[in-house]
Design a protein that fits this description.
single chain; mainly alpha; Four Helix Bundle (Hemerythrin (Met), subunit A); about 85% helix; flat
Length: about 150
């Protein structure tokens, strides 16, 4: 085998090894899908929603997307305030404590809105679908931390 053939073979083997490594990495250490993605897939791909249910869920999702964006903006603003308080006090002082409370309040409001959204979507489901939905929610909330 001449030098050129050896180099081509080595490059091809390196390429195959790299592709194999990427595939293996995705299978072994890929991050889990967020709960939100899991619920979306369950609703749209596994619960066999009828046309009316799909339309209602779509409307709920559009409404929630707006609400979620507003609450996430509040959370980001609270985090900016927290950063400013930390920078100003260089310790856990009254400004930091107040900013932490503001941040926790924003997180709590986002969590409440998310749960309200989950229950609104659940209300669209038939009993057999709701049972599967409930089981998926419980599994997502009680599964191992990742």
């Amino acid at each position: 085998m001449n030098r050129r053939s050896s180099l081509i073979l080595a490059a091809a083997l390196a390429f195959v090894a790299a592709v194999g490594g990427v595939c293996l990495g995705h299978m072994v250490i890929a991050p889990p899908r967020p709960v939100e993605s899991q619920m979306h897939q369950l609703l749209h791909e596994q619960l066999n929603l009828d046309a009316a249910q799909s339309a209602r869920v779509e409307g709920l999702e559009k409404d929630f997307a707006l609400r979620k964006a507003a609450l996430e903006a509040q959370l980001r603003a609270a985090n900016v305030d927290l950063a400013a308080a930390i920078e100003a006090e260089h310790g856990y002082g009254p400004r930091v404590a107040s900013a932490v409370d503001k941040s926790h309040h924003a997180m709590g409001e986002l969590q409440k809105a998310t749960l309200e959204h989950v229950f609104a979507m659940r209300s669209v489901l038939r009993p057999d679908q709701a049972n599967r939905f409930d089981a998926a929610i419980v599994k997502a909330l009680t599964g191992p931390a990742k």
